[in-house]
Amino acid sequence: MNKLVAKSAASLGAFGLMAVPAFAQDAAPAVSPETQYIFNTLLFLIGGFLVMWMAAGFAMLEAGLVRSKNVSMQCLKNIALYSVAGLLFWLTGYNLMYTGVDGGYIGSFGPYAFDAVGGFATDDTGAVAGYSTASDWFFQMVFCATTASIVSGTLAERIKLWPFMIFTVVLTGLIYPIAGSWKWGAGWLDGMGFSDFAGSTLVHSVGGWAALTGALILGARKGKYGADGSVHAMPGSSMPLATLGTFILWLGWFGFNGASQLAMGSISDVSDVSRIFANTNMAAAAGVVVAMALTQILYKKVDVTMALNGALAGLVSITAEPLAPTVLQSVIVGGVGAAIVVFAVPLLDKLKIDDVVGAIPVHLLAGIWGTFIVPFSNSDTSYLTQLTGIAAYGVFVVVVSTIVWLILKYTIGIRVSEEEEAMGLDKAEIGVEAYPEFGTGSQRV
Q1: CATH number of the domain that 296 lies in?
Q2: Which residues of 272-295 are buried (b: 16+ CB within 10 A; e: fewer)?
Q3: What is the reported pTM?
C-alpha cells in the first residue's frame, strides 16, 4: 500500500470545489490506462524535481542567514543531507513507509526494487498500477530530504559535521519513514481519519521536532544570550541569498503540494492540481503581508527575515490541506501561520532556544497550526483526530531524536569547541571559506 492508494479517496474530486462544468466532464472522452500512466508518472517526475530544487532553496536560505564564516559549511551540509536521504530512502526508507504497513505502525525492511526495464508497476493486487514505481519512489524520496533540511538550519554554526550526518542517517532511514507510514503508508493514523495532504506534520513538524530536540541538547551559540537575559543579534551574511532561497522554496512548493494530488490522468485531477497551486500561492502571499504588517506595528520597522519566514510559514500552514479551502480560507490559514512565527521567534529567544534560521517556528509551529486547522475547510476529519496525530508525531520524534542526540553527545560529541566556533566552521571543519577575500576569521563576527 503506498501514498497514492492511501490518499486517493481524499484527493480525487474533493468536495466538488472548483469543479469542471458538468457538460465538459460528460463530453470528455475516457482516457486510456496508458495515457493515465504517462500523465501520472509525469506529475510525479515534475513534482519530484521541483521538490528536489527546494534543496537549493534551503541551501541558499541558510547560507544567507548564517554568518559569513559558516556559509560553506551550510552549503556542504545541504548537498550531503540530500545525498544521504536518497541512499537511505532506497536502502530502508521506502519499504518502511509503504510496504506491509496494513494499518499498523511500521512497514518492512529492505532495499526498494524499481521497475524492470520496459516493465510496468503493479499494485498490491498484482494489477497494473497507474504510474511508474520509480517515479513514485523519487517523489517520496525528495520529501524525505526536505525533512532533514529543516534540522540543518536550526543547528547551524555550532554543530560538528559528522554527528549531524549520523543523525541525518537515522532521521531519513528510520524516523521519517516510520512516522510517514502511520498516515501515507495506510497505517494506524490513516485508519483513524487523520488528514495531512502534503506534509505539514509528516514532513515539516517531524523535521521541526527533530530540530527542537537538537537545539535543546546542543545549546545556543556562544554570545547569543547574556547572563542578564539579553539577546544579542547575530545578523546573517546575505539577505539577497536568503531571499533567493525563499523564492526557490516557494517555487518548489508547487511541486510539493500540487503533485501530492498524485494523479493527473483526468480533468478532475488537473483541475484539482490547479486549485492547489492557487491556494498554495495565496497562503504564502498572505504570510508575507501579515509578517510585514506585524513587524511594522511591533518594531516600527519591517523585518525582511520575518517577511521571508512569513512566506514559508504560509506555505507550511497550507500544506496539510491545500485543495479544499476557498481562496479566503487559504489567506487566513497562511496569514495566521505567519503571525505565529512573528510572535514565536522572540518567545524562543526568551527561552534561550537558539534557532539560527527560524525553522522551529516556521516548520514545527506553523506545521502544527496547518494540521490542526484542516477541519476548517475539510469536514472529513475532526479537530480531535488532528490533535491525536499531532501529539503522536511529537512524542515519537522527540523521544527517538532525544535518544539519538544524547548517544552522539556522550560518545563522539556534537558541538565544536569554543575556539572552532569563534573561528567559524568553514575554516575549522572543512577548510574552505565561502568569502576568503573578506579577511581572516578573527576579523569577522
Answers
A1: 1.10.3430.10
A2: bbebbbebbbbbbbbbbbbbbbbb
A3: 0.90
